[in-house]
């Protein structure tokens, strides 16, 4: 095989879950040309990626603005430009890891004669109409990394064990200097959720209490953020958690990876930063409620999950339908908190965090429980 295209347009965590499959492809086909089609919001993750030859950025933000503004000609011109860019590469195979309508159309427009997509029930929105091949389905409880590796079966790629993905981490001298001036052990806490993943949120007050307790143990506690909204959230949390600070600014997803890789613990909900920290080998504590941790949790052995035993968890809802779901008022906004996330206590999270730190730093002993 001489050339293939990966199609995983979004989101950050899902793109991270494809990196082991990319590594397996490169190890099996060291001389093949490998490209990746990805949307602009997650594209910086792949900058300088050592296993890729081409990155095709799908400008979804710009296209959406054109469509909403009625600029159909601009959108069609942009789509034709992307199609020409993809077809110039003459990809032989397109691997559609996302397998929804948008991604399957990108795979089709690439001109690749072989288009391999997810099997039922993972293919959505009629995407299977455009596939030429599908692998046998893996169990529904299998992790998404395992599911992605199974998509390589039609190509005869069967790694003995899942390889970790690779990233091209930047030098980032200012960020590294700021981190070097701090102390260890370092715990990074990230409370942010997207609008799409709002049902996975944990109460800010509990993140603040957890941060204060870890700072009291002697940890350097940093509240990570990305964008203005999360920056304001991190500032609220740091103000409410004595001894904690707002994390240094990171100019890209790869700089965020530098921060996470230079830490001894990451705590957060099911999100892109959590999966990025896990892939880097940082000990990760995932706070889980609506999503099945076996499928969506931290995959690598350094990870651990804390979850409540609610009868309705896990579920497939995008918004919790339970009438007893509470509301959080923070930063002038209201956020609905799922009962399965509300059932997670600070005490359970703190105990798990201390255990992870003790395992990661055995020579220093566990942090104090005072």
Description:
- With 370 residues, the chain is α/β, with parallel strands linked by helices.
- It folds into two domains: 3-155, Glycogen Phosphorylase B (Rossmann fold), CATH 3.40.50; 173-364, Rossmann fold (3-Layer(aba) Sandwich).
- The protein has 14 helices and 13 strands.
- The strands form three sheets. The protein has a six-stranded parallel sheet with strand order 8-7-6-9-10-11, sandwiched between helices.
- Helix 8 packs across helix 14.
- The protein is globular and about 60 Å long.
- The chain starts with a strand and ends in a 10-residue tail after the last helix.
Query: CATH homologous superfamily name of the largest domain?
Result: Glycogen Phosphorylase B
**What's the alpha carbon Rg, rounded to whole Å?**
21 Å
Helical residues, percent: 25-40%
How does the helix and strand content classify structurally?
alpha/beta
Q: Could you report the average pLDDT, rounded to the nearest whole number? A: 94
Order of helices and strands: EHHEEHHEHEHHEHEHEHEHEHEEEHH
Shape field: globular
Number of domains: 2
Please report the number of helical segments. Answer: 14
């Amino acid at each position: 095989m001489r050339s293939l295209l990966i199609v995983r347009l979004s989101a950050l965590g899902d793109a991270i879950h494809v990196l082991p499959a990319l590594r397996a492809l490169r190890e099996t086909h060291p001389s093949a040309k490998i490209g990746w089609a990805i949307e602009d919001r997650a594209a910086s993750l792949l900058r300088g990626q050592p296993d890729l030859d081409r990155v095709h950025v799908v400008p979804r933000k710009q296209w959406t603005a054109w469509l909403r503004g009625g600029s159909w000609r601009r959108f069609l011109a942009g789509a034709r430009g992307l199609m020409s860019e993809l077809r110039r590469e003459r990809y032989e195979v397109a691997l559609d890891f996302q397998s929804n309508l948008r991604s399957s159309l990108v795979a089709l427009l690439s001109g690749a004669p072989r288009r391999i997509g997810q099997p039922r029930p993972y293919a959505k929105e009629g995407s299977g109409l455009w596939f030429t091949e599908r692998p046998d389905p893996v169990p529904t409880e299998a992790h998404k990394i395992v599911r992605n590796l199974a998509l390589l079966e039609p190509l005869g790629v069967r790694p003995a064990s899942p390889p970790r993905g690779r990233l091209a981490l930047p030098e980032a001298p200012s960020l590294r200097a700021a981190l070097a001036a701090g102390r260890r052990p370092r715990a990074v806490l990230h409370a942010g959720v997207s609008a799409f993943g709002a049902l996975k949120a944990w109460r800010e007050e509990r993140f603040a209490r957890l941060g204060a307790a870890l700072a009291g143990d002697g940890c350097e506690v940093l509240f990570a953020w990305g964008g203005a909204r999360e920056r304001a959230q991190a500032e609220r949390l740091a103000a409410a958690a004595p001894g904690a600070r707002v994390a240094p600014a990171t100019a890209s997803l790869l700089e965020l990876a530098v921060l996470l890789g230079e830490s001894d613990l990451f705590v957060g909900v099911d999100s892109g930063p959590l999966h990025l920290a896990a892939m880097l080998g940082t000990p990760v504590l995932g706070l889980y409620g609506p999503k099945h941790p076996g499928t969506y949790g931290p995959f690598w052995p350094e990870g651990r999950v804390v979850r409540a035993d609610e009868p309705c968890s896990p579920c497939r809802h995008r918004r919790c339908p339970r009438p007893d779901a509470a509301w959080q008022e923070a930063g002038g906004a209201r956020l609905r908190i799922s009962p399965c996330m509300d059932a997670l206590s600070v005490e359970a999270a703190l105990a798990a965090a201390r255990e992870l730190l003790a395992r990661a730093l055995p020579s220093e002993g566990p942090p104090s429980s005072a």
